Recover the amino acids of this structure.
């Protein structure tokens, strides 16, 4: 394979730039040409491509967001959009495509592969960590670290006023950001889509912690359950303690990627190009038990995300 394309699609995630860098540099190492597609699949449909060289990816390893920009593109779900995307690839002589994105982006790649025979490699780039086939997605670690930092600050003021802080984190339908943030920030309670909650139980846990000498509480709510505001209102009706809500929002999608995300980006990007170089397409890359793996894209997108109940129980036991 002599010429490949590269795009970022869906919600951006810290580490996408580092992955772009790894893809471009690996491809150049093997003597392949790379075209960066701007604005995800929308740019592929509209033929917005830029040739990438060694210097195009300088000074980006530490930056959040994506230098190629991104979009959620519904047009690719229609036959006309797909045909235009494929026409761009053919016109530019692009033989394989690396797609950095989440579940929806992989479905787009799968469709180009299945219906038009374009070899694609998916790199999991989303803060949500909602893909079953990989232990971690790119951006998740940075997002959780951002949430931890914000909770550290909230804790100061909540303690001073002896309040309960309800903090909303992202994740779409997946509770992983809430679970990992909850455990690592010392939150007493997490509310996630995977486990039904009971307000009496929440109040009981708060009262028990206060009785044992705590002055404040942190509750992390995943956006897939409800907003922090709505949860705080419900809770305020049944507790004597003062409740405040905070929605972290898009702040958790930005910022310089952590070491863990930069390392994943380097390995995912490198692996993706090595596969294409060997003429292998229709795969996704990921990490399982600390090993970089690749898997059939169709199989990967059909796997249902499971929740780590053991970690959830750990939180229940250690956060009192
Ligand atoms: O998929 C990443 C994500 O940040 C989700 O956690 C969130 O539900 C969604 O994207 C928000 O999308 P938007 O940036 O379009 O508001």
């Amino acid at each position: 394979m002599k010429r490949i394309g590269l795009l970022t699609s869906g919600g951006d995630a810290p580490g996408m730039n580092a992955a772009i860098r790894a893809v471009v540099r690996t491809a150049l190492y093997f003597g392949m040409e790379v075209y960066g597609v701007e604005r995800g699949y929308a740019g592929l449909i509209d033929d917005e491509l830029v040739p990438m060289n060694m210097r195009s990816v300088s000074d980006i390893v530490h930056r959040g967001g994506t230098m190629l920009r991104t979009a959620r593109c519904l047009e690719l779900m229609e036959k006309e959009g797909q045909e235009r995307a494929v026409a761009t690839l053919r016109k530019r002589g692009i033989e394989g495509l690396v797609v950095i994105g989440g579940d929806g982006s992989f479905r787009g790649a799968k469709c180009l592969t299945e219906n038009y025979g374009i070899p694609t490699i998916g790199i999991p780039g989303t803060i949500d960590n909602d893909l079953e086939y990989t232990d971690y997605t790119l951006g998740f670690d940075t997002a959780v670290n951002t949430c931890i930092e914000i909770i550290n600050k909230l804790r100061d003021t909540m303690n001073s006023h002896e309040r309960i802080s309800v903090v909303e984190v992202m994740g779409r339908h997946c509770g992983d950001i809430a679970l990992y943030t909850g455990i690592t920030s010392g939150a007493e309670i997490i509310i996630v889509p995977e486990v039904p909650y009971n307000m009496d139980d929440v109040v009981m846990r708060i009262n028990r912690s206060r009785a044992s000498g705590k002055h404040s509480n942190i509750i992390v709510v995943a956006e897939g359950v409800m907003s922090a505001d709505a949860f705080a209102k419900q809770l305020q009706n049944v507790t004597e303690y003062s409740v405040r809500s905070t929605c972290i929002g898009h702040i958790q999608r930005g910022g310089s990627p952590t070491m863990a995300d930069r390392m994943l980006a380097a390995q995912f990007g490198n692996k993706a190009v090595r596969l294409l170089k060997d003429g292998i397409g229709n795969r996704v890359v990921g990490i399982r038990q600390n090993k970089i793996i690749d898997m059939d894209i169709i199989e990967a997108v059909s796997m249902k995300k499971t929740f780590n109940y053991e970690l959830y129980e750990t939180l229940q036991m250690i956060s009192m």
Summary: Residues 77 and 108 are 7 Å apart (CA to CA).
